[in-house]
Amino acid sequence: MASLVESPARSRERALLPFLFLLLLLLSPSLVSAFGEARRIRMKEEVRRMFYHAYENYMTYAFPHDELKPITNSYTDSLSELGNLKLEHLPENYKGSALTLIESLSSLLVMGNKSEFERGVLWLSENLTFDIDARINLFECNIRVLGGLVSAHILATDSKSRLAPGTYKNQLLSHAADLGQRFLCAFDTPTGLPYAWINLKYGVMENETSETSTSGCGSLILEMGALSRLTGDSRYETAALRALRKLWSMRSSLDLPGTTLDVITGEWIEYSSGIGAGVDSFYEYLMKAYILFGSDEFWDMFHSAYIAVQKYHEADMRTGKATYWQLTSLQAFWPGLQVLVGDITAANSSHREFFHIWDRFGVLPERYLLDHDALHPTEKYYPLRPEFAESTFYLYQATKDTWYLEVGESIVKSLNSYTRVQGGFASIRDVTTMQLEDHQHSFFLAETCKYLYLLFDDSFLVNENYIFTTEGHPIPIRRWWHERLPQTYIPTNWTSFKSENHPNPVSAMQSQVCPATSTGGNTGILLESACHIPDMRTNHRCITHEECGTDATSCRQRMCSMAGYCGLWFRI
C-alpha cells in the first residue's frame, strides 16, 4: 500500500514485497474462482444469522442496557465508558439508553425486517430519555446515538418503509433534537472547538478536561448538519461547522492536522498526524459532507488534506518527518474513502495490504508494526471492528470484482470461527491466542454485520443513494438537502456531478468511476483523481524527485529517472 505506508527507508526487498504479494493474489486460483449466485445467497443468509444471533442475545440478556456481555449473558451500561480509557467519573445510577437497539435499527431495515424495526422505533419513542446524570464522550454519543436516531427517523418516514399510520409521530427526531441541544453547551469555548466530555443532565462539568481529538472536533458535521436540515434549527450545523473551520485553520503549513488539541487555547498537544485513531473520521467527514451537503468548502478542505496525507502518511505535522510505519485496524476505512474519491486503483492496493494482515492472523489486530514486522506488544486485540468489511463492500460496489466477495466470505468465516459464542459475538483480547473478551460492541450490529450483508445483497441501495456515517448509519443523498444552500454550492465537480442521466448529485462510488476517466455522453466532464499532483514542468523533465508530482491513477509518488524524466520508477 504505497499510498499509505510507503517509507523512504524501505529496502529493495521490502519495496518489492507488496508487488510480489499482489502477483500471487492475482495468480491464486482459489481467489479468482467464480462466485456463483447460490454461493452469494448462502453468504447473505449466513450474515443474516450472525446479526440475529447477536441481536436476539442482546434483547434477551442486555436490553434496555447499552451493550451485551455475550460470555456471561449479562450487560454493560457502556455509553459513559466509550472513550473513557481510565473509566473516570462513571455515573452511579445510570441504567443504560438501549444503545445497541439504537445502533441496530438501520441494520434491521437493511435486512428487510420492517416489523422489528417498527417495534424498536416505538419502544424508543416512548421510553428513551437523555435527562440522565451521565458524563459522555461527545464524539461517541454523536456518531452512535444522534446518528442512529437521525437515520432511523429518516427511514421511519420514508415512503418505502413508512410505519403504520398514527404509530409514529416523529418522536425519534424529537429525541435527537433534545440530544443535540444538550450537545451545544460543549461548543461554548473561546475557540468554538467543543469539549470532548459533557454531562447529559448538567452540561460541561467544573474542571472538565479541555483536551480533545481531531476526530472529536471534526467529525460532527454529518449528524448535526442533518439534524438542522430536519428540524429547521440551524444551531446544530452552525456549531459543528464553526468547529470544523477552526480545526482546519489550525493545520500546519503542510496541510496536516495533529491528533490532540486544547479547546480553550486552540493549541496542539500531540503533533503526530496520520489516518488512524484520533484523526481517521476527520478525513472521512470532509469528503462525505461534500457529497451530502454539496458545499465546495468541504471539497476544498478535503482535497488539500487528502493530497497532504498521501504525501506524508504518518508524520509530524510540522516537519513531515515520518513518525510511525504501521497498519492499524482503524486505518482500514481508508480504501473505502479512496473509492468515494474515485481512486479505485489506489484503494485496491491499500485494501490488499490489510487483507494480507487479516489473512495472516485470521482477524485484523489493532496495531501491526511494519518496520518490525510484528504485532504491537499491547495492542493485539480485535474488538469486532467493521472498517475492513466496510472497505471490502465499497470496493465491490465500485468494481463488481468477485474477489471482494471471496474476501467477505473469509471475514464471515473468521468471525464465526473465532468470535461466535453461545451468547453472541465476543471481542478478541489477543489475536495470537484468540483469547476472548466478554464484550459485544454495538458497532458490530450497526456496521460489521451491515456492511457484510450489503456486500452480498445491496437491494437496500437500489432506489436510493446513501452516505453512511462513520458508525454505518445511512443518510440519503437527496435534492432537498441542498435546497437551503446557495445554488453555487450544488456540486458540479467530478466526485459528485449532475447530468441528464443523473439529475441529482451522485458519488463516484455509485457511478463506478475510475480515476482520470470521462462521464461519457455530452457532458464532457473529466473525472480526475483527487490525489493527482502534476509534475513541475509540462514536458516532465526533472533534476530531483521533488520536481515530480503524484500519479493520478495509482496515487504513487513519481520519481526523477537517470535520464531526467518524471515517471513511476522503483526507488532502489
Describe this protein's structure:
- With 572 residues, this protein is α+β, with helices and mostly antiparallel strands.
- The protein has a domain at 131-321: Alpha/alpha barrel (Glycosyltransferase).
- It has 18 helices and 24 strands.
- It has a three-stranded antiparallel sheet. A three-stranded antiparallel sheet has the order 10-11-12, with no helix packed on it. A two-stranded antiparallel ribbon has the order 1-2.
- Strand 19 and strand 20 form a beta hairpin.
- The radius of gyration is 23 Å and the shape is globular.
- The two termini are 17 Å apart.
- The model is unreliable at 1-33 and 483-528 (pLDDT under 50).
- This is alpha-1,2-Mannosidase.
- Its EC number is 3.2.1.-.
- Belongs to the glycosyl hydrolase 47 family.
- Residues 1-34 form the signal peptide.
- Keywords: Calcium, Endoplasmic reticulum, Glycoprotein, Glycosidase, Hydrolase, Metal-binding, Signal.
Estimated structural class: alpha+beta
Order of strands, widest sheet = 5-6-7
Low-confidence stretches: 1-33, 483-528
Gap between N and C termini: 17 Å
Percent in helix:
40-55%
CATH level-1 class of the domain at 131-321: Mainly Alpha
Radius of gyration: 23 Å
Could you tell me the CATH topology label of the domain at 131-321: Glycosyltransferase
Strand portion: 5-15%
Structure summary, number of beta strands: 24
Number of helices: 18
Q: What characteristic shape results from the CA principal axes?
A: globular
| Mean pLDDT over the residues | 85
**Architecture of the domain at 131-321, according to CATH?**
Alpha/alpha barrel
Major sheet summary line: 3 strands, antiparallel
Oligomer: single chain
